[in-house]
Amino acid sequence: MSAAPEKIADVCLVLEGTYPYVQGGVSSWVHQIVNELPEVTFALYYLGSTRAQAEKKRYTPPANVISLTEVFLFEPLPREDLVPAPLSAAARATVYEALRNFYFCVNETQRIDAFWSVVAAIDAIEAAGGKFTFGNFTNDEEAWELLTELCTKFAPAESFIDFFWAVRFVHLPVWIALRSRHLLPPARMYHSVSTGYAGLLGAVAARKFRAPYLITEHGIYTKERIAEISQATWIYDPASRYFDVGEGIGAFKQFWINLFMFLGQVSYDSAQRIVSLFEGNTYLQIEFGAEARRLEVIPNGIDVTKFDAALAKRTARLEKGLGAEIFIGFIGRVVPIKDVKTLIRAARTIVAREPRAVFHIIGPTEEDPDYFEECKQMVTLMGLESKVLFLGPKNVREILSDLDVCLLTSISEGLPLIILEAFAAGVPCVATDVGACREMIFGRTPEDKAIGRAGLLTKICSPLDTADAVLKTISSAENLLSMGRAGRTRAERHYRQGDIMDKYRKFYTDHSWANLAPTNAVASSSMSQLTH
Fold first, then answer.
1. Is pLDDT at 524 greater than 70 in this prediction?
2. For residue 485, is it within any domain?
3. Can you tell me the distance from the alpha carbon of 106 to that of 194, in angstroms, rounded to the nearest whole number?
4. Number of domains present in the structure of the chain
């Protein structure tokens, strides 16, 4: 962890696994914000997995970014934090009473109150010159008594040893995140670009500094984590579960799901304003605990003039007709949530029916090396080595002019910036029907829809549907030009970067929106029990 700065920033951006170390849509958005608002000073509070994943910056922050604090949630704890600190019975009793209230609450309002009571109890110990360590949480007699109660109530069919380690692993990153609260930089307001651990620290910072707190969600973090955990192989499930033909998931996966549901609720509860990129996501935010009166929709924006050269070059090329090769581009991270494997399977069908098709997969590959290796093996097994090319990161503005169509096969998205960039360059898009892709490609309002379709939508995880949509889109140069014009027009009329930046400028400089006080309005009590 790095030390917090002394200078007070206008805005502290709380970022989880994104800028400036990971390339992609959310990071591009953050880079856009800090560059387009030079009059605003920013402190970056970065939460990552391990230090190794943050060895190289993918972006160079501008001069108005005055500090960067790094916290790594899955690095080994220092030895002193693994040893229980000597505490009086009274001090321990205060912490464990608050913890017991947290785990056994009957509704979410009480659970959030109990959570802050836990934090306050630990703060009181530190204010008195003591220390409560993770070693206390795993070694104190009161901790074992509480764990025994929890196991009996919530996981009676599981081994207590398995239960102990599952609870330890679930709580460890939360502990590290909360332990880092002393490093939070002072700022006039806090803005997290997700819920989860970043949302937790945003909530903590807002309370600590009595400052306004804003959340912008590009995707719905809680939903994405539930989908990820449901399919995860890294979470231990007892062997007996593999013979379970009933519905549901194991207790230990449920622990993780409930953790992220609670982190979402405590984030929403603490924020005075919660922004989503499109209307559909507001319904999910309400389902996961957000109060409707705090919600606001602000899409991503783009300066289309920066893509004029790419547009002109692409238009001139296609006006001469389709070339000897038809280039289909995927621009993004090669990770499971982008479902590159469906793209590769679709490529085999497309190439069989249109031999001129060539796929350029453009973007970083190091975030999930195992998945990248599996994708390369699929390409080799299907004999597509000359047709599916992994090109690594490229300058988007430079490569868009060479693409005939942009393809997204994502399982989940918010409002993909790459679609806006493709539209600005006149490139139509084929995308899965997730997030804001439908309204971006087909239009949202009657006026917007009248512009025309800027591509086609596909089903999730459907190689055949994806292949069919791509083949229809690349059927003629005229079709590509027509869809490309619709995309450019839509970007110009409905996604102007200047309008979006003005809204965030007002958030950052006029805090009147923060008069909406939190009220602990959350969803039903079934959502964050330790297990169901």
1. no
2. yes
3. 27
4. 1
